[in-house]
UniProtKB/TrEMBL annotation, chain A:
It is found in: Cell membrane. Its main location: membrane. PROSITE patterns: ABC_TRANSPORTER_1 (PS00211), ABC_TRANSPORTER_2 (PS50893). GO terms for biological process: response to antibiotic. Keywords: Antibiotic resistance, ATP-binding, Cell membrane, Membrane, Nucleotide-binding, Translocase, Transport. Residues 272-286 have a biased composition (Basic and acidic residues). This is ABC-2 type transport system ATP-binding protein. It comes from the Bacteria. Residues 250-286 are annotated as: Disordered. PANTHER family: ABC TRANSPORTER ATP-BINDING PROTEIN (PTHR42711), DOXORUBICIN RESISTANCE ATP-BINDING PROTEIN DRRA (PTHR42711:SF19). Residues 254-271 have a biased composition (Low complexity). It holds the Pfam family ABC_tran. Residues 10-244 form the ABC transporter domain.
UniProtKB/TrEMBL annotation, chain B:
GO terms for cellular component: ATP-binding cassette (ABC) transporter complex. The chain crosses the membrane at residues 35-62, 82-104, 125-150, 162-185, 197-213, 247-267. One of its GO terms (molecular function) is ABC-type transporter activity. Keywords: Antibiotic resistance, Cell membrane, Membrane, Transmembrane, Transmembrane helix, Transport. It comes from the Bacteria. GO terms for biological process: response to antibiotic. It is a multi-pass membrane protein. Coiled coil: none annotated. This is Transport permease protein. The keyword Membrane applies. InterPro entries: ABC2_TM (IPR013525), ABC2_TM_bact-type (IPR047817), ABC_2_transport (IPR000412), Nod_factor_ABC_transporter (IPR051784). PANTHER family: NODULATION PROTEIN J (PTHR43229).
Amino acid sequence: MSPTAPGPAIEVAGLHKSYRSRAGEHPVLTGVDLTVPAGTVTALLGPNGAGKTTAVGVLSTLLRPDAGTVRVAGHDVVRDPDAVRARIGVTGQVSAVDDLLTGAENLRLVADLLHLGRAAGRRRVTDLLDRFGLADAAGKRVATYSGGMRRKLDLAMTLVGEPDVVFLDEPTTGLDPRSRRALWDEVRALVAAGTTILLTTQYLEEADHLADAVAVLDGGRVVAHGTPDELKAAHDAGSLDDVFLALTEPPAATDGTTDGTTSSTTSGTTDGTHETSETTEKETLR
Amino acid sequence: MTTVDLAAPATRTAPRPLADVVTMTRRNLLRAVRYPGLTMFLVAGPLVMLLLFVYVFGGAFGAGVAPGVEPGAEGRAAYLDYIAPTLLVLTVVGAGQSVAIGAAMDAAGGIMARFRTMAISPGSVLSGQVVGTVLQSLAAVALVLGAALAMGYRPAADAADWLALVGFLVLLGVALAWACVGMGLSARSVESASNTPMILLLLPFLGSGFVPVETMPTAVRWFAEHQPFTPIIDTTRGLLAGGPLDAAVTAQAVAWCVVIGVAGYAWSRSLFRRERRA
């Protein structure tokens, strides 16, 4: 899909974002730099609460950055949000479908809002229903859909406008293995057609299978960025799991005030390995 | 799997806000049809009140709202005449409550986020809610009015009065709907969104809705005379009675509607773009 000038589809430099509440300011992103070349998949990894969803929120114009520059599909998200919105598709964690409408009606709603026109809109809806295996359920209310079907419909709605850049926030969370594989195939097909994809995931296996590049977000910054193989080599790790554990802070170390409610997937990391990984990390970071 | 149309450039046309309003209105009417409980609730509330106030309280209250009326059947007829316009206004208010719930449901789910990441104007997305609600409330008003007529209500309005009444109720409906969209979007949950507009349902009671304000103690009376629903109800009552309208009261009623509508619109628009913590 390349009438668009070559160049990165996503460029983020020095992105800061804090949330303000009565309790004070809570910084989430503290200087994120990230470049995603057009037509590639980048996976954003990071522990719970690392700011992955916040980053996607800023990139998809839902949240305003406090500082830094963010360009998506060649447009600045602050100065020209509507130009960005016209070129992106977003599938968030909360399903963005209308339960009271049927699958086909949901897709028609998006097609109409994009002014595809009656005939083209109908064609697009039929294509997407077929492509996502939803043709049989097209006339049923979404409230009756299974989790996997909802996710498919959600993604189909995201693709109605043939976006250049697609954001997928934990697209496969809660899906069974078959649905997950089907979604991976869908992602690969999109990329083959020239779409740029940024996805967040908790499943490192997913990043390994799908992503051209992996960015690890921790403590509000991108602490590592490279191809899955590069990262594994740089950290002398056999899997991205090991890279993840080496790079990210155990929850207790990041904030002494939080209680033990945070899940402690990374708590196995000792302080010793952490020190070493930090030095390696500085060398390997671009 | 077809990849054919993926290669085609997406169709992206210039903004067409009116088309977007039509699309969103269609969606909201479809929702109303699929979820008839809420629409029924819109009619049931005022209907129950009408029956209760006329057949239980009316016999006694009627003597207090019109001079020289005997308690009993004559009182009931006089009271029906007095409160039928109020209940039409309350029906419009109730529709506002449903739009607040609808807006809060959209905001709580992901669909509002989807609209916000599309290049469509907030005005269009929210107008769809408002237009849908006004159409719904007109239908509900017609049903409540039908019930009042069946109970013996005989408005003296002529064709011009009816036309003016429809226009006035549309204005009121648009104004309240914008205010309620704001309430819905600012609510922390769908439950609180359904509670906030309750205050609007109380206002007609603290005004000229059910008893003349002259019968109230000074402080309450002062409030009644200075709140929007007193001129709004008086205007509705005047139009149904076939005039004559008090020009000052009508002007106040229209001014209140315009103020509520414009403020509600501005508020709702700003809330649409408000950041929601991810």
